[in-house]
Amino acid sequence: MEGQKANEKNFCGGAFSDWMEVMLTEKCNGRCSWCVDKKGYHPKYHASAKCLVEKILAADKKNIILLGGEPTLYEELAYLIGAIRQDRNVYVTTNGSRLTPRFAADVLTGLTGLNISIHDNNLAENHRITGIRLDERNLIAAIERIQEANIRLNCNLIRGHIDSDDRIRDYVEFAKRLGAQSIRFAELKGDIEQFVDLTSIYGNRFGINNNPFGLGCQHDAELYGMAVNFRQMCGFQISCRPRPSNPESSGRKKVLYYDGRIYDGWQMEDERIEIMRTDHAKEIAILEAYKKSVLTADEALIKLGIAERKPSPETHAGNCQY
């Protein structure tokens, strides 16, 4: 039986093939109830920033988006941005908690784009639902220090918050005050209780539809004088839409995790990940045995499955192993 094909403008339909997402850290100072990463894979091993740079540059993707967790909590963020910005377009998505004029100048110089996740233009309400306390004047001052970067606000549509055309218009005016150039309004993933269906607000305007898998989940428009992107969830991500039957897609996006491995999409804490975690534990034990001189360099390389490499003992322990 012929399957339903993913729209070519979707992530799963092959769009954004020149992008790589990077999970820099599992740490986050927010408490968003809808956070899908709560059940995500969090490796025990942390590769060096140098290793991550090597992986990013070797992957030959033009656009790199740095994520978390909360990526501004990554201690070597400035080094990483500086190491890849000459050859890549670099984007950071943040909850804005560390976004000050000083931080922007010291750490975020050279970004192509900065995405700030704010889910209510009433910042007291945003604090209530995310746990992140923001100040409008501070945000404006920080954004002014990142003049070369495109500033986009990310806003999840949440019942009781940004859930109508009137509230979206208010949010657009808020974004203009901050100095943002664009906004992404996204339906919630996996949270049916707080889910706001974009079709209930705009019907089929802007390409919004009831079959995002087949008809497209990404829709660009201009609304109230602002460039906006609408992001819909298909039946794989939300139960109120039918799950595509016998689906055909062009593969999942590549994600570099902070353990130095590139995975086929975002990973969940399932049986497959348990196997990966076990493999990592073995690798770490081998490296520790080498450092303690229990294993020679050649023995360690054989156990790691990379016996063809012949680094010297002085450099082996500090190199990117994964």
**What is the number of helical segments per DSSP (H or I, 4+ residues)?**
11
Number of strands: 10
How much of the sequence lies in strands comes to: 15-25%
Mean pLDDT comes to 88
The string of secondary-structure elements, in order, is EHEHEHEHHEHEHHEEEEHHH
CATH topology of the largest domain: TIM Barrel
CATH superfamily of the largest domain: Aldolase class I
Measure the end-to-end span: 40 Å
Spatial strand order of the main sheet: 7-8-6-5-4-3-2-1-9-10
* Overall spatial form: globular
Which structural class is indicated by helix and strand composition? alpha/beta
Rg, nearest Å: 21 Å
Report the biggest beta sheet as strand number plus sense, adding barrel if it closes. 10 strands, mixed
What's the number of domains? 2
CATH architecture of the largest domain: Alpha-Beta Barrel
Low-confidence stretches: 308-322
Helix % is 25-40%
What CATH first level of the largest domain would be assigned?
Answer: Alpha Beta
What can you tell me about this protein's structure?
It is globular, with a radius of gyration of 21 Å. The chain has two domains: 19-264, TIM Barrel (Alpha-Beta Barrel), CATH 3.20.20.70; 271-316, no CATH class. The chain has 322 residues and is of the alpha/beta class. The chain is built from eleven helices and ten strands. The protein has a ten-stranded mixed sheet with strand order 7-8-6-5-4-3-2-1-9-10. It has helices spanning 49-59, 77-84, 101-107, 123-130, 136-144, 165-178, 199-202, 212-215, 271-291, 297-304, 313-316; strands at 19-23, 63-67, 89-94, 113-117, 150-156, 182-186, 218-223, 226-231, 254-257, 262-264.
